[in-house]
Amino acid sequence: MTDNEPRDFIRKIIYDDLESGKHTGIVTRFPPEPNGYLHIGHVMAICLDFGVAAETGGKTFLRLDDTNPGKESPEFVQAIKDDVHWLGFDWGDRLTHASDYFDRLHESAIRLIEMGVAYVDSLSAEEIREHRGTLTEPGKNSPFRDRSVEENLDLFSRMYAGEFADGEHVLRAKIDMASPNMNMRDPAIYRIRHIPHQNAGDKWCIYPMYDFAHGLSDAYEGITHSLCTLEFEDHRPLYDWFLDQLKPEHRPRQIEFSRLNLAYTITSKRKLKMLVDEGIVSGWDDPRMPTISGMRRRGYPPEAMREFVKRAGVTKKDKLIEMGALENCVRETLGDSAPRRMAVLRPLKVVLTNYPEDQVELMEAMNHPGNPDFGTRELPFSRELWIEQDDFMEEAPRKFFRLKPGGEVRLRFGYIIRCDEVIKNDAGEVVELRCSYDPDTRSGTGTSDRKVKGTIHWVSCQHAVDASVRLYDRLFNDANPNMADDFHSVLNESSLEVVPAKLEPSLAAGDEAVQFERLGYFRVDAQDSTPAAPVFNRIVTLRDSWAKLEKQALGN
Ligand code: ATP
Ligand code: MG
Fold it and tell me: How far is CA 14 from the centre of its chain?
């Protein structure tokens, strides 16, 4: 038990159950279906399921909820395991599959038939739909509802034996076709699918339905609190009904919380899969994807993601959280942990006409302005340098304190320079600046205490590492693409910009997240980068340029 006040209603229930002695230990499960990669919404569920068990000295199962063969694959299973580990959680020896229980579930289905509360229906899927009724009208009983136990047992065993085609029969619970809760109108328990299973192979041609398999799997594993999202609230009576009928030794309790939705993002595996399959993104781990593997590849630290869901909180109210809230967590974490480096993304050449041709000086540069423990490094400085195109303006307003014709600026960790001449190409574009440096103004050691207003970053041409840098933006233009009729209509066409960049030499090695001074946080792309052709991803900008827009769109 922790000494802290429980921070949400689920923790309150769980802590109370421990205090009252209802449970002596907490057991939870995280039950993803391996039909896609995990996304930011799942981070919330993972942190809750694993977090609350860890806090109370309990246990968590990672259960692959694989009742729907055809959509599931070992690739997704592996990705789920990698992602949960990367987030910082461990299931120990408690990796299970719903399919591990297929034999027991099958036996339980037979028991329900024997008890007279399940029957084989031979209506077509279409007819079953017609019989189900609507929210305002009760359903109608199937003409097969009163089959004898013997006939049901016979038909079910022949379904199992593979005598029938998909859809020819279905096993249903016999509950109440007039129930106001549609889930209780004789829901399907088993259906025929002649299709091999990612874990069970081709042993089965009948598969249990999610609602049936889930609660019983919870019971088999001794789950105390089965935490899921609100769309399962209406399924809880059914969850309880199966437990009431079959009376397993252990009885789990289902508790629902609201889904986490992130603005400008979709959190539906089905839609994310469309983005991948249609080639709109480069894969499930495209750094623009709200998947855990996408965010990992982009460079989001796992602790930032855990902090984000902690701040979002576990509630019963639907919420759409600003992307800025996630990015702020990323900024805060990286602000402390990322060393500073210099990189120029849109280079403009500067030639220091009064600097000796062959001279190279090594400038001492701090690796972190707020933390001397990060130490220093040496930056080579020479006659020809790259600066950002944006740091020069030919017709500059009075308040522009960077470089302009005749103006001065300080080069960080270097000298004060003055722009003497602007060189243009035939098209009239600025291609080079001729500048002079003041030798008395070297940072740290200069004899002059002359000050100028602006400081800009730079990279020595002769020492620069060429790299390609990927700048990411929101994947969607709409704050809630989940609601769009067709998400294609709200795709942000410029969510990826690739720029050629010049990096300081130390960036040729290492793959940790770094801050490019004045530009943002960046990290080597683990997939596409090579020592000969480095590729960096922008993790996040230094400031939130979307904040205002996003607040307006969300009505905050
Ligand atoms: P999707 O709609 O993306 O397919 P899902 O609910 O079908 O999501 P599952 O693999 O079944 O995905 O989810 C595993 C667990 O994660 C479930 O307990 C589910 O309630 C939870 N979960 C899924 N999406 C979210 C979300 N957006 N916020 C919080 N929890 C979520
Ligand atoms: Mg699901």
Answer: 27
